[in-house]
Write a structure and sequence with these properties.
The complex is a heterodimer. Chain A is mainly α. Chain A contains 22 helices and twelve strands. In chain A, a hairpin with a 5-residue loop joins β10 and β11.
Chain lengths: ~525, ~300
């Protein structure tokens, strides 16, 4: 179990995972097969757990596989599967390259009060029905998703647009300009803060983030303490040269005691090949105590240890309790807010926000979605955009349909196909085409036809269902009319309406999605003679 | 050689040498659409009862062959209707076989480059793909150009316009030597009919301006800037209700007709008849086109050549 292939395999899987997920999240031209992003996102722990709860088969398998992997080999997940973890490895490696001097991270004591506090608060929040906020803010995969989709993708678009000019000069037509979709300031702040925290912490102290603020890391650490195989120092072979210590980014190897903290070891296997003496490697530790990998130290509980544990225990309990109470209070406030003041109002009608087809209801969507923005990146029309406070605080960064900029393509169900957590359930195309997200409301007095007495019909022109259609008006003009039961709330009419600042036709969001009626017309008849020229 | 950048540059030089209206006079075909009463009557070819390509071949031959419109070494822009992300059988877009054959004819006539684009309503990549036009045009050797790239549009003055005094127009339309308009005939909820004149809304950046500033007048105003060299109307399977997007293929009827003319108003006037309108003048932009001297609405003053292939 001292083979260098452990590390090589881990690096290969990690790079493939990061490349695949990043490609899906950065893709602004629909070039990456959407199944790739969906598959790689589905094996992420939080999406897998949520997807399993929503009854997605792939998620159940993925969840069991991740738990089994951790029980077998420890937190390999954190080094090979989690994109935020892999990203941090790249940052800390770069930081060491450009850093002022060659330095290495010493062994450090765990900040247990912090990591268990965050984990406890997260679990309490989930129990209090506030998983939608806690998991959205803390899930490492979703954080990476937002960083890649909201920050890296628009930058990629700008680079692309810069290259288009060069490509044109050479006559290459496969590059074309794309509009960079920047999220609103409120939505953008979240990934910007996350990126800053992660970059600073990883450049400073390797996997500090993963061993303090990440609830997924801490949760897997609890399992990893009892993993079947754990990294162990062979006391007979070890010369205490410190090579393994220098290779460790989790600061979990204590050479003085010969212990390795399995709850913080991220399973990168970097320490294994650097040891020239074969002194460190994976060892079978099934049912041989939790957390301690070195037998002599395991029995030595000193009085100061006991005091420290008591302090950690008490402070953790206090912190989690406080966080839990806070969570419940905020949750209740959020529920009330969601019930009343959703979105912008205009002439007494509540218009937004509209949540994507397959999410069933705003409340369910906000509870399940962790805002990984895979759907935002995958949406071909760009109608799905991260919300700032349109849903209220509970929906910060969660995707909403922004009809001021685009509209939902009638023949597309991509968002449900990519969502790894069942927040947007996959819908067959036929079902999606009758899923009613909202209902178009036409304000006749604001309409061009009524106001200016000139023809328009832009809304009816874009309507895919015929719900918005033109009926006779004065002076041979036609004016829009909406059949609400046929409207699916795709927003094509609102997008197309030329009236400003407020548009004459807008989609009123349905808090719970409905089902539109399809009116089947008889085949059309020819308005002119069919066998000769009518002129 | 035939890059976009290349003929944008060529076009700029040309544009400096001739005013756009003078440039139209370079082409023999334009003489056919001269003001009513002054010169020969405009020719309108109407073909029935063949397949699309056969009708197109016949119509162009009747107009003197593509060589009457495209000279050797010229750059051509072909503007179909590619507005919607729907398949060809829904007939919301020009049929790809017509676009493909037109591109082939342009190259046979010696065109240096043929570009195809539309400022689509649905997402452009999806429209180009689902309509079948992207693939068909590329097979024939044309370049599919992004119609949703604002940087390819240029602000130009339209002194002859009543409502549309200036607009951002796609560089291909401003700079190409030959401008071929190839719409599909459709019912249109707002404009009543969508044919050749309405199709040209897809060469300007801001369609919303048209809608909010008298749709029919702005559609007509654009023609004072540049009239297409040639118009070909696909009326094989026209959508007669729920237009311009349509709900299903049930909105279409089989008509197996194709019209071609250098006179855009004459062509649209005949199109109104195909859709069963008693008087062409009920369609605002057709009436205004005639009124502003942009073409002939009265088909009695048009040399209509009716051809039945079966």
């Amino acid at each position: 179990m001292h083979s260098p292939w452990w590390k090589r395999a881990r690096v290969l899987v990690a790079l493939a995972m990061l490349a695949g997920l990043s490609a899906a999240l950065l893709d602004f031209r629909g070039l990456v097969p959407h199944r790739l992003g969906h598959a790689l996102a589905s094996v992420q722990l939080v999406p897998a757990a949520l997807g399993a709860a929503a009854g997605l088969t792939l998620s159940v398998i993925a969840l069991l596989a991740v738990l089994a992997l951790t029980l077998a080999l420890g937190r390999v997940y954190c080094s090979a599967i989690c994109p935020l973890g892999i990203f941090q490895d790249i940052v800390s490696r770069l930081a060491r390259l450009v850093g002022p001097k060659k330095r290495f991270l010493r062994h450090a004591k765990p900040l247990s009060w912090l990591r268990y506090g965050v984990l406890g608060a997260t679990l309490l929040a989930v129990l209090a029905g506030w998983s939608g906020v806690a998991l959205a803010l803390l899930d490492p995969y979703s954080n990476y998703g937002r960083i890649a989709s909201d920050l890296f993708r628009p930058v990629g678009v700008l680079l692309n647009n810069g290259l288009v000019g060069v490509a044109e000069a050479f006559g290459w037509m496969w590059l074309y300009r794309v509009e960079p979709h920047w999220a609103g300031a409120g939505a953008l702040a979240v990934p910007a803060v996350a990126l800053t925290v992660v970059v600073v912490l990883s450049a400073w102290r390797g996997r500090l983030y993963c061993n303090t603020l990440c609830p997924v890391g801490t949760f897997l650490g609890v399992i990893a303490r009892r993993a079947a195989w754990r990294i162990e120092i062979d006391q007979d072979a070890c010369r205490k040269c410190g090579a393994c210590l220098k290779a460790c980014k989790a600061q979990c190897i204590d050479l003085r005691t010969g212990e390795i903290d399995a709850s913080r070891c991220v399973g990168c296997f970097n320490c294994v090949p650097v040891c020239t003496d074969g002194g460190i490697g994976l060892a079978w530790k099934w049912r041989r105590g939790a957390g301690k990998t070195s037998a002599p130290a395991a029995s030595a509980v000193t009085p100061s240890d006991a005091g420290r544990r008591a302090f950690i225990g008490a402070s953790t309990l206090a912190l989690t309790a406080a966080a839990g109470v806070a969570g419940v209070v905020v949750a209740e406030a959020g529920r009330r807010r969601r019930g009343q003041g959703r979105g912008p109002q205009d002439q007494g009608i509540v218009f937004g926000p509209v949540c994507p087809p397959g999410s069933k209801s705003v409340e369910r969507f906000l509870d399940v979605c962790t805002a990984c923005h895979l759907c935002v990146s995958a949406c071909p029309t760009g109608v799905l955009r991260p919300a700032s406070l349109e849903y209220g605080w509970a929906g910060l960064t969660k995707p909403q349909m922004d009809f001021s900029k685009s509209f939902c393509n009638f023949d597309c169900n991509r968002c449900g196909e990519v969502c790894p957590e069942g927040a947007i359930l996959p819908l067959a195309l036929a079902e999606k085409k009758t899923t009613q997200l909202g209902v178009a409301r036409f304000r006749r007095r604001m309409c061009i036809v009524h106001e200016a007495g000139t023809a328009c019909g832009a809304c009816a022109e874009h309507c895919p269902t015929g719900a918005v259609h033109m009926v006779p008006f004065r002076d041979g003009l036609t004016i829009p009319q909406v059949e609400p039961e046929q409207c699916i709330g795709c927003g094509a009419c609102e997008y197309a309406c030329p009236v400003r600042p407020a548009r004459a036709i807008r989609v009123e969001a349905l808090p719970v999605h409905g089902r539109a009626i399809v009116v089947k017309d008889k085949p059309a008849e020819s308005p002119a003679p069919v066998d000769d020229f009518p002129f | 050689m035939n890059t976009r950048r290349e003929f944008l540059r060529t076009g700029l030089t040309l544009g400096a040498a001739f005013s756009l209206t003078d440039m139209g006079g370079l082409f023999a075909a334009d003489a056919q659409s001269a003001a009513p009463g002054a010169g020969p009557r405009p020719v309108l070819v109407a073909v029935r009862d063949g397949d699309r390509v056969a009708m197109l071949d016949k119509a162009i031959a009747e107009l003197g062959g593509m060589g009457a419109f495209v000279k050797k070494g010229q750059s051509v822009v072909v503007k179909p209707n590619i507005g919607w992300d729907v398949p060809p059988e829904r007939a919301a877009n020009t049929h790809p076989s017509i676009v493909k054959r037109l591109v082939e004819m342009c190259f046979e006539a010696g065109a240096a480059s043929v570009s195809v684009f539309d400022n689509t309503c649905d997402q452009w990549q999806k429209c180009y793909a689902t309509s079948g036009i992207g693939e068909a045009a590329r097979e024939a050797g044309a370049t599919m150009v992004n119609g949703k790239d604002e940087s390819l549009y240029r602000e130009v003055q339209i002194p002859g316009g009543r409502q549309l005094k200036s607009a951002k127009v796609h560089g291909l339309v401003l700079d190409s030597d030959v401008f071929i308009n190839v719409p599909v005939l459709k019912h249109h909820g707002g404009a009543t009919m969508s044919a050749a004149m309405k199709n040209l809304m897809g060469v300007v950046w801001d369609r919303g301006f048209y809608h909010s500033n008298d749709l029919h007048q702005t559609i007509t105003d654009f023609l004072t800037l540049r009239k297409p060299t040639l118009n070909v109307l696909d009326a094989y399977h026209p959508m007669v209700r729920n237009g311009p997007r349509g709900k299903s293929a049930d909105d279409c009827i089989e008509m197996r007709t194709l019209l071609a003319s250098a006179d855009i108003v004459a062509l649209d006037s005949a199109a109104t008849k195909l859709l069963g309108h008693p008087e062409p003048g009920v369609i605002g932009h057709v009436r205004l086109g005639d009124e502003m001297g942009l073409g002939v609405m009265d088909l009695k003053r048009v040399d209509v050549r009716r051809i039945k292939l079966a």
